[in-house]
Amino acid sequence: MNIEKADAQAVAKAGAVLRAGGLVAFPTETVYGLGADATQAHAVAAIFATKGRPRFNPLIVHAVDVATVERYAIMTPVAKVLAAAFWPGPLTLVLQRRADSGLSDLVSAGMDTVAIRVPGHPLATALLAEAQVPVAAPSANRSGRVSPTCAAHVAADLGDDVDLILDGGPATVGLESTIVDCSGEVVRLLRPGAIATDLIEETIGSPISRVEGATETPTSPGQLESHYAPAARVRLNVERPEKGEALLAFGPNVPEHNGLVLNLSARGDLTEAAVRLFASLRELDQPGVSAIAVMPIPDTGLGEAINDRLTRAAAPRPRV
Ligand code: TXA
Ligand code: MG
User: Fold this and answer.
1) Residue 295 shares a structural domain with residue 164
2) Global pTM?
3) Ligand 1 pocket by Cβ (under 6 Å)
4) Which residues hold L-threonine (predicted)?
């Protein structure tokens, strides 16, 4: 078994694996990441191979602190304001790469920008400090599947294809980071996420433009791709679940249902719902289930990111 409880010894070992060009799955506050040294092209390529990503989407680079970020990318004034407010934490900034960044071109998919974040999870911080290299890490799931919020999810998806899985318990936020593009004149929201959009707008002092459908496809906006998807079909805004479906409920008023039922938050709390979203989708994704029926979820605060993930989970699947 390649899962290790994330104590000091395991973190030291994981740092060595990363420096040697290996793959380490590690906890962050959002979801578990599949990490590799962002300066080694071979290591970054192994991420794509292991996830089974059909294309080279650009990845998020994780850095230990803001000073380290400045070695790789140019922090604009807005970027500095957002970093001061939310780092370490679940915010990713897309910035212009420095010419001498040393980052592999593959992490940026050949673009002159790079997505960077300083994670807030103590084990992620410890790993980055130990490794002494910037760590490229997408979510540690097979491409297109539900993001992992605990070590067992990673093991189920990637198993022995990862050199080491650091077990740091369940993720505390449960939704991927919010991605804000600060690389150009106009600040844009590329992915709603763990920090609610209105908080970002409050911090920069103006409304932010949303790039519709840009998640996971920064080069071809407008395409809604299947993603974050369980094997079972997903049906949204369901008031009355059908026979054979599993029900993903939200709030206190749950319709009677003869079948699997999980409630994201019985008290209608969106933060609690975010924490439970991906684990609940995995749990309801049973062989006999005809579809996962999801009750309506308000689109306010974290609800925007939750509905973004659910809409993608419900999108038509590509034929393989
Ligand atoms: O919470 C998170 O962000 C997690 C944890 C592990 O940190 N990571 C994560 O990574 O969600 P991933 O690879 O699943 O998502 C990366 C997203 C993609 O939507 C990608 O298109 C976007 O970041 N991205 C990366 N580099 C970019 C760039 N230079 N320009 C625009 N978008 C970029
Ligand atoms: Mg992902």
Assistant:
1) no
2) 0.92
3) 28, 30-31, 33, 57-60, 90, 92, 94, 108, 111, 113-115, 137-139, 176-177, 179, 190-191, 215-216, 218
4) 30, 62, 117, 137, 177
Closest ligand 1 atom number to CA of residue 34: 6
**What is the CATH number for 23?**
3.90.870.10
Taking the CA atoms of the chain, what radius of gyration do you get in angstroms?
Answer: 19
Residue 139 CA, ligand 2 centroid: distance in Å: 4
Q: Which residues pair with 115 in a beta bridge?
A: 60, 94
The rounded Å distance from CA 96 to ligand 2 centre is 22
Tell me how far apart the alpha carbons of residues 55 and 303 are, in angstroms, rounded to a whole number: 29
**pLDDT at position 28:** 98
Contacts of 181 (CB under 8 A, 6+ apart): 93, 94, 113, 187, 188, 189, 190, 211
Q: Do both 175 and 136 map to the same domain? A: yes
Tens-place pLDDT, residues 63-111: 999 999 999 999 999 999 999 999 999 999 999 999 999 999 999 988 9
Write the pLDDT tens digit of every residue in 159-185: 999 999 999 999 999 999 999 999 999
Same domain, 145 and 244: no
Question: Do 172 and 241 fall within a single domain?
Answer: no
